[in-house]
Structure formats: structure tokens, C-alpha cells
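R.M. (postdoc): so does anyone remember the format we settled on? I'll just put the C-alpha cells first.
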């Protein structure tokens, strides 16, 4: 039975599964590192202990998230060699150096300062520790920059030539490769999504503790900061997403056609299809709920502007419409739900009921995981929309995989599923347990005396106490 399966499809499922798990943790750690820098900066500026206690509380969570992100990311690099060796051979001269730069600049920066950030509060000065926190936050941003650059080049490849061996090689300046046409839009959209995701998690934790104790100052501060972030960033993200969509229409029109569900061209204005059931066999959207000419208005800024459909794309070059159609709507729908939560929090502030509105707190808890769902849905839209290419318009997915039989790929896929759900399931459970513990004063204060280890008793602890024989 396994022999009848498609090894390329299995390899795609395996990479999609591991990336989906991995994407959860960087999308959290990027925003959380910046949140920690803000908390420590506010503590240094105001001297208020509430910021320091919150910093120490979320620092423990960050340590677990960062570790899980690193471990889950290592697996993907191996898959380039095991499942996608042809792609690695052909695209390696371009993407290899970019990923190496990510290690040399971002990962080394994070690793160098992470120890000071986690364990150096009582060992270095306040300014140096704050510098370490800022460097870790900067490292997460630089890491995202390089990874997005690599993926964006695969979406909108520029600055390359193809040598006699069929490999993509740099042609001219590396800047054309790094700053490819979709890179700035995708970087802004992804980083803002990370900040918004973190704010929703922090807001959900704050709301959880407010429901248990409305007078908890830590819960109040968490919830207030998170709701400010959601109210400000959500509309910015919607605008950034719109700009990203226009860029995608220019460089990857087939992806937008699939997102919009436009099987047919519309020379006199295309409708905005809100919902429906994509029918790829009949090339239509069944039971479509649509707004006439609204898609042309959004994408072309004119209700009668023509929009091409998938009927202009050869059938073997069309992306899978059903997956993209729904993943895009999940992402957009959750984005507007986040905007609604932010606006409700503004209304609550104006009414003076931000900490006394249980319905708002319950809604914030429900929306807590929505950022993760939205970033995964956005990733699915982006990557499935690139199909049937690994390097858009240049290298087909069907010829990019390793010469592996289906049983070999299926065996490793099953192993990944079992290990990921057990190991990372335990990690997520531990994170939820940490979040469920209310922050308190003097959170994780370091010991005021040297820690006894290896049977050695600190000298001051022996003052006034009988000294054991043989000491």
C-alpha cells in the first residue's frame, strides 16, 4: 500500500508538518523577546517593581519557547538533504550562504547574550543586562530577516543565473537576491504578526488572572499592555497585509487568483467571494457568497478594473485552490477578529471598565491562540500558493525531491509525528502551566547567599554554629 503513495506528496506533508510546529515558536519568541526588552526598559526608567517581576515571570517562558524553537528548527535543515536533495543541489549556491549568514549574525548574537539575559541579573550591572536583553531581541529580528529573505527569493527569484550544471548562482550583486521584490512586504507582515501573536498570548494570560482576581496588579499591567498592542498593531497589520497582497498580485498572480477563488477572468470587474466551496473539477466556486466588483476595487482600486482568472494559467501550473482559498480566509478572518478585540479594549478603557468586563476577558482568552493559527494559515497560503514550484517559475516541486521511495518517506513522517506530539506536547503543557501561575512580587529572586553545592557550607552560615568534626 505504501508503494502506491506519492513520495513527493509525503515529503511535502513532512516538511509542512515540521515547519508548522517550528513556526509556532519563532513567531512567539520574536515578539516575546521585544516584550521582555520593553519590560526591563520600563523597570529601569520608572523603578517600578511590577515591570521587573513581570520580566522575570515571562523570562522563564521565553527560555522554554526559545529552546523548543531551536530544536524544532534543526530538523528542517536535515530535510533539505534527505527529502529535497535535488533542490539543495540546484538552489544551494544561493540559499546556502543566506542561511549561513543567519547563523553567523543572528544565532551567534542570540547565543552570546542569552546566557547573560537568563542568568546574569544578579551578576552584571543593570545596563549591561538590559543590553543583553536588547541584543537577544535584535538577534531574533535578524534571524527572521535572513529566513524571510531566503523564502522570499524562492517566491520572487531575482539576481541569479543558471550555470551549466543547472544550478542557481548569484549574478551581479547579492543585494538583488537578498532584497528581492517580495522581501520587504513579507518581512514586515511576518514580524508584525509575531508581535501581534505575542500580545494576544500575554493578553490571554492577563485576562485569565483577572477573572480569578481583578485586583491583581500584574494581571492588570499585562492585560493593559497587550490590549494597547492589539489595538495599535492589528490595523497596521491589515494595511501591511493589503500591501503584501498587491505585491503578490504583481509577481505571483496565480496565487492571488487561487486566494480569491477566481477560476474565470473578469474583464468588467471581479467580485469579492466571501465564502463558498471551491470546485476545481468544474472550475467554479459553489454556493458563493460574494460582493460584486469588490475584488477589483480592492486589488486594482477600481470597481470595473479587469482581473485575470485561473483560466489564463495552464492546468498543470495551477496551485491547489481549495487549500489556499480557505487558509487565506482563516487568516483574514482572524485578523479582523483581532482588530475587533483591540477596538473593544479601547471602548473598555473609555468606559473605565478594562479590568471589570468579564466578557472582554473571556474573549481575550478565546483569542489567545488565534495568532498562532493565523500565522500558520498565512504560511500555508504562501507556500501552497507557490506550487507547483519550489523556486517560483523556475524549479518544479516534482523534480526537486530526493530519489526516495514512498515507504522511506512515510516511515520518517510517522516518526516525526510521534516524536513531535509527545515531546512538544509536553513542552506546550509546561508552558501552559507556567502561564497559569500568577506572577507575584520578587518573582524568582536570586538567592541572597551563595548556593551550597558539593557539600561545601558558606562560611557565614557557620557563624555561631558548631563546626562539625573534621571541618
Amino acid at each position: 500500500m505504501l508503494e502506491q503513495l506519492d513520495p513527493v506528496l509525503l515529503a511535502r506533508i513532512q516538511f509542512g508538518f515540521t515547519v508548522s510546529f517550528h513556526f509556532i515558536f519563532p513567531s512567539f519568541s520574536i515578539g516575546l523577546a521585544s516584550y521582555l526588552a520593553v519590560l526591563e526598559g520600563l523597570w529601569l526608567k520608572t523603578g517600578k517593581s511590577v515591570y521587573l517581576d513581570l520580566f522575570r515571570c515571562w523570562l522563564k517562558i521565553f527560555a522554554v519557547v526559545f529552546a523548543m524553537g531551536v530544536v524544532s528548527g534543526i530538523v528542517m535543515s536535515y530535510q533539505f538533504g534527505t527529502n529535497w536533495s535535488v533542490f539543495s543541489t540546484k538552489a544551494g549556491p544561493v540559499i546556502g550562504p543566506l542561511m549561513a549568514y543567519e547563523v553567523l549574525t543572528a544565532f551567534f548574537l542570540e547565543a552570546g547574550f542569552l546566557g547573560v539575559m537568563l542568568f546574569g541579573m544578579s551578576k552584571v550591572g543593570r545596563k549591561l543586562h538590559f543590553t543583553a536583553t536588547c541584543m537577544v531581541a535584535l538577534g531574533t529580528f535578524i534571524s527572521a530577516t535572513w529566513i524571510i529573505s531566503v523564502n522570499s527569493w524562492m517566491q520572487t527569484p531575482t539576481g541569479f543565473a543558471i550555470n551549466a550544471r543547472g544550478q542557481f548562482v548569484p549574478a551581479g550583486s547579492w543585494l538583488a537576491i537578498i532584497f528581492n521584490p517580495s522581501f520587504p512586504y513579507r518581512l514586515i507582515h511576518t514580524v508584525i504578526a509575531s508581535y501581534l501573536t505575542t500580545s494576544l498570548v500575554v493578553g490571554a494570560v492577563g485576562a485569565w488572572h483577572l477573572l480569578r482576581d481583578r485586583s491583581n496588579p500584574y494581571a492588570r499591567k499585562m492585560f493593559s499592555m497587550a490590549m494597547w498592542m492589539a489595538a495599535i498593531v492589528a490595523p497596521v497589520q491589515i494595511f501591511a497585509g493589503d500591501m503584501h497582497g498587491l505585491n503578490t498580485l504583481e509577481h505571483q498572480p496565480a496565487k492571488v487568483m487561487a486566494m480569491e477563488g477566481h477560476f474565470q477572468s473578469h474583464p468588467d470587474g471581479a467580485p469579492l467571494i466571501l465564502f463558498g466551496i471551491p470546485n476545481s473539477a468544474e472550475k467554479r466556486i459553489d454556493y458563493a457568497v460574494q460582493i460584486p466588483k469588490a475584488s477589483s476595487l480592492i486589488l486594482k482600486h477600481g470597481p470595473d478594473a479587469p482581473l485575470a482568472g485561473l483560466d489564463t494559467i495552464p492546468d498543470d501550473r495551477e496551485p491547489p485552490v481549495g487549500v489556499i482559498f480557505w487558509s487565506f480566509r482563516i487568516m483574514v478572518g482572524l485578523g479582523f477578529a483581532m482588530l475587533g478585540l483591540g477596538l473593544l479594549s479601547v471602548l473598555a478603557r473609555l468606559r473605565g471598565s478594562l479590568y471589570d468586563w468579564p466578557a472582554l476577558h473571556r474573549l481575550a482568552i478565546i483569542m489567545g491562540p488565534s495568532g498562532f493559527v493565523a500565522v500558520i494559515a498565512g504560511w500555508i497560503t504562501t507556500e501552497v500558493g507557490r506550487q507547483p514550484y519550489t523556486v517560483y517559475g523556475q524549479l518544479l516541486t516534482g523534480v526537486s525531491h530526493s530519489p526516495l521511495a514512498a515507504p522511506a518517506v512515510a516511515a520518517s513522517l510517522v516518526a516525526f509525528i510521534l516524536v513531535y506530539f509527545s515531546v512538544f506536547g509536553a513542552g506546550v503543557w509546561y508552558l501552559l502551566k507556567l502561564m497559569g501561575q500568577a506572577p507575584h512580587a520578587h518573582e524568582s529572586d536570586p538567592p541572597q547567599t551563595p548556593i551550597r553545592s558539593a557539600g561545601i557550607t558558606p562560611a557565614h552560615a557557620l557563624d555561631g554554629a558548631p563546626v562539625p568534626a573534621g571541618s
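R.M.: ...and that's the designed sequence above, right after the C-alpha cells. Also worth knowing: The longest helix spans residues 7-46. The chain has 13 helices and six strands.
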